[in-house]
Amino acid sequence: MAVADIAPGAVPSPNIWNSPQVYEIENRAVDPERALEAAMRALRPWAGGTVLDVGCGTGFHLPFFARDAARVVGVEPHAGLAAAARRRVADLPNVAVRVGAAQALPLPDASIDVAHARWAYFFGPGCEPGLAELDRVVRRGGAIFVIDNDATRSTFGGWFRRWLPSYDPAAVERFWTRRGFSREPLTIRWSFASRADLAAVMDIEFPPELAATFLAEHDGVEVDYAVNLWWKYA
Ligand SMILES: C[S@@+](CC[C@H](N)C(=O)[O-])C[C@H]1O[C@@H](n2cnc3c(N)ncnc32)[C@H](O)[C@@H]1O
User: Residue 119 C-alpha to ligand 1 middle, in angstroms?
Assistant: First the structure.
């Protein structure tokens, strides 16, 4: 994809940019118990409201929100992925997909009830411009949900730390807390249909040598995976 087809400010996301089919396998394996969904619904249900999915990728989560939201908007800076998201929701009249980035959301002020960003752009320090945009577009009484890794625990968290030893979970936590976000720690899991699927996903998430090392150390098709659900009411 040409650089011109990617909105300014996009954070390179080689896993889904280069391998959207494998990322689809990953999405299907994530959180079979739907613990993230239950936690978000308990904090701010979205039935009848307008949901924004920032960094929606190929739109995996859009149909899920569309089941009970009145309206769903996916925003994605990579035009090719946005096109795939549009294809996915072609028969869902209450879903729209826009090309854009978190730092300049193509949405009016106070137009969103629930904003959701999952492993997209909002990784702590550096995402202040996107947070200002969320404050602008989410209406009072709404909520912002940001899902990211918890590197302090779980098998996946351990892999993540070994890959990025300079990652500072305490600094990330301070960042969110200072901006009024609360942390809901959750332990979800990856559950794959086959070892080949797990291996393919490891290859898009980690450099090849590390992926091979981690796989050799880990049996089976299940991986416990700690995440933080950062959330704030608008
Ligand atoms: C790891 S993928 C996750 C995709 C999707 N949230 C999901 O769970 O299937 C990260 C996504 O964030 C998008 N992204 C990168 N920079 C962004 C930005 N500045 N604003 C919004 N989205 C961004 C990428 O293009 C990519 O689609």
Answer: 7
